[in-house]
Amino acid sequence: MDIQHLVDRLEDLIDDGRHIFGTKYTLIDEERALEIIDQMRISIPDEIEKASRIIAQRDRVLAEAHEEAARIVQQHRDRAEQRINEDEIVKAAQERAKAIRETALQEANRITAEADQYALQVLTRLEQLLVSNITQVRNGISVLNEQQQDAGVVRSEPYQPVHIPRPVDSHEQLVDADMGDNKRYSS
Is the pTM of this model over 0.85? Predict the structure, then answer.
């Protein structure tokens, strides 16, 4: 199932919950929430698999571009050797081979850059979605814990959130911005 659809279902569950008058708390159906979370756990590997397929496709396209470049270069070397006795023809063939090699390398670099950019976009969107989902789940758990504490329910073991290491690269700003957008569930 599509992860975005599951996020929408979780959001609908929270929106459909019973709001406690005069508080910021909402009661939700725990069984339905846990069912949606389980479905999210199942569908996240699908999203990762899609990203892996994109990366594999990028690698295949790069390999084909390099093979084509090597084939073109080899063809022009063979032609140049056949005409080695004619200086003008040899010069023209060398210039043409160089131009084709440069064009092939530029094309391979362009394809690589586009494939890398696309993979980065997909992985960044996936990261943002996962962070958003985790934030929403944690906020829901926090609300439930607060409600249980207010109701005097004593838990045998306190809830301990799972530690997720923060990114160390330039995408950290995206994660922080995404977490800021989800504050509406925590207030």
Answer: no
